[in-house]
Structures are given as structure tokens and as C-alpha cells.
């Protein structure tokens, strides 16, 4: 999943890190997923997060990604502008 975020009152990259880092840590801790800031690294008030997981069951993967989106939404200091989910099956890889 890719999330595009707008951050609140952030005026430096250091302040941005102090907002984004706890969100990434919560995703990793609560849901045992891979999560990282993946885009808009040089912008103060924007952030892109990537969340990934491996699952034997598509329904479980979708449920975890929906919960991950809710974890991010629950952080009041950010606004989720978009969230895009993509499920890749082993047969999709050529």
C-alpha cells in the first residue's frame, strides 16, 4: 500500500521526522508489517509511506492493509490524501 500524507505545522525535515517516525513505528509494532517513508523525502509538509506484507490469504492481506490505513488516519497530526492498495500474487511475477 502507498499512502500520500500532508503533515500539519512542520517547518523542517527534523520536525517532519518527529511526526513520520512514530507512525512508521506504530505500523511495524501493531501490525508486524514492513513500513517506511518512501517518497517526498525532501519536502517538509508531505510524506509518502509504503506498507507491505506477505500473506497466504488475500483476504488477510487486505484486512491488514485496511487496518494499517486506519492506524495512519488515527494520527491527528497528518492528513491522508490518498491510499492505494495493490495485491500481487505469486503468479503475477514473470
Short note summarizing the structure:
This protein is 37% helix and 28% strand. It is of the alpha+beta class. Strand 2 (34-39) and strand 3 form a beta hairpin.
Topology summary:
Blueprint (H helix, E strand, L loop, with lengths): L1 E6 L5 H19 L2 E6 L6 E7 L5 H16 L4 E7 L10
Antiparallel strand pairs: 1-3, 1-4, 2-3
Helix pairs in contact: 1-2
Structure commentary:
A four-stranded antiparallel β-sheet has the order 2-3-1-4, covered by helices on one side. It has a single domain (2-88), classed as TT1725-like (Alpha-Beta Plaits, 2-Layer Sandwich). The chain has helices spanning 13-31, 58-73, and strands at 2-7, 34-39, 46-52, 78-84. The model has no long low-confidence stretch (mean pLDDT 90). α1 (13-31) packs antiparallel against α2. β2 and β3 (46-52) form a beta hairpin. With 94 residues, the chain is of the alpha+beta class. It contains two helices and four strands; from the N terminus they run βαββαβ.
What distinguishing features does this structure have?
94 residues; Alpha-Beta Plaits; four-stranded antiparallel beta sheet; 2 helices; 37% helix; elongated
Architecture, according to CATH? 2-Layer Sandwich
Strand content: 25-35%
Please provide the count of β strands: 4
Q: What is the class in the CATH system?
A: Alpha Beta
Mean pLDDT over the residues: 90
Low-confidence stretches: none
Give the radius of gyration.
Answer: 14 Å
Distance between the termini: 21 Å
- Could you say what the CATH topology is called? Alpha-Beta Plaits
Amino acid at each position: 500500500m502507498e499512502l500520500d500524507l500532508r503533515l500539519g505545522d512542520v517547518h523542517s525535515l527534523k520536525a517532519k521526522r518527529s511526526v513520520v517516525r512514530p507512525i512508521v513505528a506504530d505500523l511495524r509494532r501493531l501490525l508486524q508489517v514492513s513500513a517506511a517513508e518512501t517518497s517526498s523525502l525532501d519536502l517538509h509538509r508531505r510524506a509518502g509511506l509504503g506498507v507491505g506484507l506477505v500473506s497466504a490469504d488475500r483476504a488477510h492481506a487486505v484486512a491488514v492493509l485496511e487496518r494499517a490505513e486506519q492506524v495512519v488516519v488515527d494520527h491527528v497530526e497528518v492528513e491522508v490524501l490518498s491510499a492505494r492498495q495493490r495485491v500481487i500474487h505469486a503468479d503475477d511475477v514473470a
